[in-house]
Structure formats: structure tokens, C-alpha cells
Amino acid sequence: MMPGAWLTAIGQRVFRGPTFETLVAPAIADLQFEAAMPRSRRWSHRLALIVVVGHGLLRDLHVDVLNAFDRDSWRVVWKGVAVWYVVLAGLFMYLVIRSNVPRDLGLDRFSSAGLLSASLQALISACALSIVPAVVYLHRRGASYRRSILAVVLIVSSCATGAAFATRPLKMRADRELYEAVSSVVPVGPQTPAAPFDSRLSASKIWLQYKSDDLDPQFARQRDIRGGVAVMVWALVGLVLARHRAWKMAAFGIGMAASHVWLGLTLLHYEVRLGLFPSRTMQEWRDIALQLTTVSLWLAAGTVLRRTRISWVNVPRPD
């Protein structure tokens, strides 16, 4: 194979046409021309090729961002994504308040801390799921806008991580206030057989054990990083759904959810069987890895089916 041939094949897939023809292709041609020259000359040109590739990537990234946020995209894509974000943020806020704030203990004066913590968590968590409609809308706009998906995912992931890091002191302060409010009215120590069993207090003790992790700075930092990673994983979910429409999209979504639950239950079964009890941090990273595995399997299966269908279509039929 001619030196640089594999670079040409990769460059034609990675770079836009004008960028490849004006920047990358001439640099690869120089590399092929200098293949017979001394090693020092070749290394200097390889360094120059790295600089050219970096400049080409930045130029394509600039074009991708402009395409993703042009006037038509704001009207067709981002208005719909904004509606999805508001709906998801409201749903998450409701679920977080119902599941994480023990309001049945008469802590009305501390409801502001619970509401603040739930609001911050919901606003940041909604970014991950909101990337799904964004990827679907951009994918359906055409090949030029599909290249912008990577830039959009990187921007949203960075914004979600940055917002989580910026609001972490405020959220931890609200979590600590809520934790201290609940712990002040929950009896310390296990219930004795003579004492009447109170399911609310038992649930509150479990909640306190769960909420204590949120007060750990290391766990909070890992949680903020996971928020950015989750955006990338949900973007892959959007890629799977974007290839289908209407009821077929719903069927694929249900299928991915069912396979994710099945894999999760299988993994949980073996963890219990082997006596493995990972920490909450490991559990949440495991869930992200499990979701990534599920989506990757669906992407691989879709690619294989598409290529098989194309090969069957191209088979010559006998007269």
C-alpha cells in the first residue's frame, strides 16, 4: 500500500470535502513524496501533518457549530428541543421531590432546601435526555447537519458538566441543610422490638444513608462528571432512534429499554450470587457502562442488518 493511503481513506471520512482537498490532501501528498527521504525530514513533515490535521479539525468544528445553530436550526431544531427540555426538567423535578425529599416528617420549613436541591438536579439531568431529540432533529435535516451532531454533543456535555461543577457548592449546601433537618427528627439507633414499628421512620433512615453520599465531595465530583458522560451515551440513543420514524421509532425505544432492563437484572443477579456489593459511585458508573453496552449492541445490529439488506438488493437476479 502506498504510504499515506490509509490517511487518505480516514481523512475523506473525517473531514469535510473542502477542508480535505485544500489542507489535508496536499499534506498527505507531501508525505508520500518524501517517503524515500531521510528519517529526519520525514519526522519533521509528520509533525507538520499533525498541525495541519489539528487546524482542519478546528475549521470543520467551526463550520459544524455554525450549521447546528443557524437560523433554520433555531426554528426547526432548537425550539422543539427547548420544549422537550422544559417537559423533562419538570418531570425530573417532580420525581426527585417525590423520591428524595421525605415530606411526611413535618419539615415544611425546610421545603426550600429540598426544592432547591431537586431543581438543580432536575435542570442538569434534563440535559442528558434532551440531547436525544436534538440528535434526531439534526440527523433528519441531512448529511451536512449530521456532521454537526458531534459538535453539539461536545458542547452540551461540556455545558452540563460545567453547570454541575458551578452549582455544586449551592446544591451541597441545600443537601446538607435538608440532611440535618431530617436527621434532627429521626431517632438515632435501630428500633427495638418493644417500640412500635414506624415505616416512615425506617424509610427516612434509609433516605439518610442514601443522602449522605451526596455530602461527600468526591462523590459529588464524580456525579458531575457522570452528567457529562451521560449526555454522550444518550446521544447514541438518539442516533439509533433517528434512523426510524413514528411507530418504528417507538418500537426501537421500547426494545432498547427492555434490553437494558434485562441486562441490568442479569448483572444484578450475578452480583448477588457472587456476593458483590459495589458502592453507589460504582453502581452509577456501572449503569452508564450498561447503557453504553446496550446502545452499542443496537447500533451494531442495525449496521449489520442495513449492510445485509444492501447486499441482498445488489445481488444480480437471473433473467
Short account of what is shown:
The chain is mainly alpha-helical and 319 residues long.
The total number of structural domains is 3
- Biggest β-sheet: count, sense, barrel? none
Name the beta content range.
under 5%
- Order of helix and strand elements from N to C terminus: HHHHHHHHHHH
Q: What percent of the residues sit in helical stretches (DSSP H or I)?
A: over 70%
**What is the count of helical runs?**
11
| Overall 3D form | elongated
Poorly predicted segments: 191-197
Instruction: Determine the structural class based on helices, strands and strand pairing.
Output: mainly alpha
Q: Number of DSSP strands?
A: 0
Q: Termini separation (Å)?
A: 39 Å
How many whole angstroms does the radius of gyration measure? 26 Å
**Whole-number mean pLDDT:** 81
Task: Describe this protein's structure.
Mean pLDDT is about 80; it is low at about 190-195. The protein has 11 helices and no strands. α5 (about 110-140) runs parallel beside α9, α7 crosses α8 (about 200-210) and α10 (about 245-275) packs across α11. It folds into 3 domains: about 5-60, no CATH class; about 70-185 and about 200-240, no CATH class; about 250-315, no CATH class. With about 325 residues, the chain is an all-alpha fold.
